[in-house]
Recover the amino acids of this structure.
């Protein structure tokens, strides 16, 4: 299913996107050495509930997971990259943490992810990976607009990631959003320009470049959810929800300081 949002829904999408961005930034500030992943999950729950929003994850039970996810946010550490299920783990100095959050507010969903290094240790390799996903995300957004094709976005993202020397997994990528979290069209993190669905104003897309340092192969944790690099290498993940407009694309999940600057 591909949904095209009406003007009222687009206004709600902006509110949802701002909420997701603000929660992620608050959680980033709170995530310090010694912070437990279960505390991050509880903090996310409290902020979602306080805002009158709904979690897209608690009851999420797709075919590739093991039962309902049962938590409010994905917390992926070091070699974990997607669907990191919060568990009893306290963050250490230098850990690379990815937070992925999707909520519904006013009946419209927004989805975003950030990666950052915890503490004072800031390994250059980890920072380079995060930078690559952020640059790829910007390239994907720049390629989006009315009349563009999904393949244009995929090609833009993949060009940046490949140039940075990272293998690209095509099992999981970006996707449409709307009244539900995961919709068509699928947005691969590499592809051929000029191919695929033609973008239309009112379409919401979650673009999410993610990489593993030296492999494109994933393995699933014993929890049935957390996806890790097959080699144990570090990973990074960046994601924004965008709305296709009449003249381009608007990022809905920008942090507050970026929204103010815009």
């Amino acid at each position: 299913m591909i949904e095209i949002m009406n003007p009222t829904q687009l206004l709600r999408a902006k509110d949802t996107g701002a909420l997701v961005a603000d929660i992620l930034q608050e959680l980033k500030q709170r995530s310090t050495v010694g912070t437990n992943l279960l505390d991050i999950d509880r903090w996310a729950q409290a902020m979602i509930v306080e805002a009158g929003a709904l979690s897209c994850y608690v009851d999420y039970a797709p075919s590739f997971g093991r039962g309902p996810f049962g938590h409010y946010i994905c917390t992926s550490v070091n070699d974990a990259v997607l669907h990191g299920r919060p568990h009893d783990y306290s963050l250490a100095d230098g850990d690379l943490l990815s937070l992925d959050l999707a909520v519904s507010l006013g009946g419209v969903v927004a989805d975003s992810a950030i990666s950052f290094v915890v503490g004072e240790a800031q390994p250059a390799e980890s920072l380079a990976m995060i930078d690559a996903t952020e640059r790829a995300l910007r390239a994907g957004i720049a390629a989006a607009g009315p009349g563009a094709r999904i393949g244009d976005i995929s090609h833009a993202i993949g060009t940046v990631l490949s140039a940075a020397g990272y293998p690209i997994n095509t099992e999981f990528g970006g996707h449409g959003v709307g009244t539900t979290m995961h919709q068509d069209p699928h947005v691969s993190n590499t592809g051929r320009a000029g191919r695929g669905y033609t973008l239309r104003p009112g379409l919401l897309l979650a673009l999410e470049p993610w990489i593993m340092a030296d492999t494109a192969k994933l393995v699933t944790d014993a929890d049935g959810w957390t996806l890790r690099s097959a080699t144990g290498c570090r990973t990074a993940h960046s994601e924004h929800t965008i709305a296709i407009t009449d003249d381009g694309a608007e990022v809905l999940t920008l942090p507050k300081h970026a929204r103010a600057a815009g």
Remarks:
- Residues 7-261 form a domain with the Creatine Amidinohydrolase fold (CATH 3.90.230.10).
